[in-house]
Q: What sequence folds into this?
């Protein structure tokens, strides 16, 4: 156990060191001048060199890297040149919106993808399998922005069944004190049920847009895991004993797929947190993706690197959690 923990700690430390290096390299390789981003283009060479020296950009690259690593380890990402607030404070403000959207999308993906994958595996080669494979192919291949625009056009513009872009109507903004940063939870804790309904109406379309892609991936993986297990000898033995197909699937096949599904869902969650940029842009969702996009257009490298590091750290944490659950559910993996 001690050796396993030490090995895991070493892997985690090496992963974060690599993450530090990658984000540092992005900041140095981007074709944006951090000095001009702060001062503007109309400055003299003397002021340019002075600001460059104050920012530490004249120091040796190894010194800059270790200084950056020490700052990030203390969650100091600098100050955003757009908001004039610390990047850490900005991320704390916008990340709950991305977390809310990615969580809803992952739940939709699980609720649709897992049953669809099971049905496709059980009725392999039939109509159900063909329909599931076509729908998952479309969900996996269709551009995110196209799915978002189509959902807005049909369900908001034409049918008017749900709320439009944004996270909540303007009339509800600032009505409750943010506690978790997740509007639905904060409104529910405050007893503002009309606000909960309004926030949920805004969440549906972007969550379905993300969730469809997640369901496609989870469905395909579930089908693959199920088919692999259904070829095993224990399934043949269970059928020889006269067990029903439903009992075999529920009592034997699904438990053996659980550890693989956990990994697939964790990776999906991380990808949704990382890849919600286009969805947030289409639906004007004020999350981390939209924050980083705006920062990129304004050459706000502190904000870009801070957001990149946070997403990377979340992805590492999700992989670590999935690996830990994998070992708990299947001791043979240890």
A:
């Amino acid at each position: 156990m001690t050796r396993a923990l030490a090995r895991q700690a070493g892997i985690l430390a090496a992963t974060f060191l690599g993450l530090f290096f990658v984000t540092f390299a992005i900041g140095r390789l981007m074709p944006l001048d951090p000095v001009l981003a702060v001062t503007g283009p109309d400055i003299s060479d003397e002021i340019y060199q002075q600001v460059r020296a104050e920012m530490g950009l004249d120091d040796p690259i190894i010194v800059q890297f270790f200084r950056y690593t020490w700052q990030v380890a203390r969650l100091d990402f600098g100050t955003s040149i757009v908001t004039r607030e610390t990047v850490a404070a900005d991320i704390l403000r916008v990340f709950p919106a991305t977390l809310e959207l990615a969580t809803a999308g992952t739940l939709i993906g699980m609720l649709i993808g897992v049953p669809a994958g099971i049905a496709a595996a059980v009725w392999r080669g039939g109509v159900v399998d063909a329909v599931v494979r076509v729908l998952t192919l479309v969900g996996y291949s269709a551009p995110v922005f196209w799915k978002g625009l189509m959902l807005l056009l049909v369900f908001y513009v034409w049918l008017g069944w749900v709320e439009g872009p944004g996270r909540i109507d303007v009339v509800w903004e600032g009505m409750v004190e943010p506690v978790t940063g997740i509007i639905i939870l904060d409104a529910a804790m405050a007893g503002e049920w009309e606000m909960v309904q309004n926030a949920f109406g805004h969440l549906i379309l972007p969550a379905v847009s993300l969730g469809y892609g997640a369901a496609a991936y989870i469905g395909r993986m579930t089908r693959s895991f199920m088919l692999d297990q259904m070829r095993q000898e224990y399934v043949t033995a269970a059928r020889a004993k006269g067990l029903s197909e439903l009992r075999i699937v529920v009592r034997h096949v699904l438990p053996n797929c659980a550890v693989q599904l956990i990994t697939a869902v964790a990776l999906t969650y991380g990808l949704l947190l990382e890849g919600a940029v286009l969805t947030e842009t289409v639906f004007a969702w004020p999350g981390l993706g939209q924050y980083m996009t705006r920062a990129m257009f304004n050459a706000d490298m502190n904000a870009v690197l801070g957001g990149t590091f946070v997403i990377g750290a979340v992805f590492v944490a999700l992989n670590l959690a999935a690996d830990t659950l994998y070992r708990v559910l299947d001791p043979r993996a240890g």
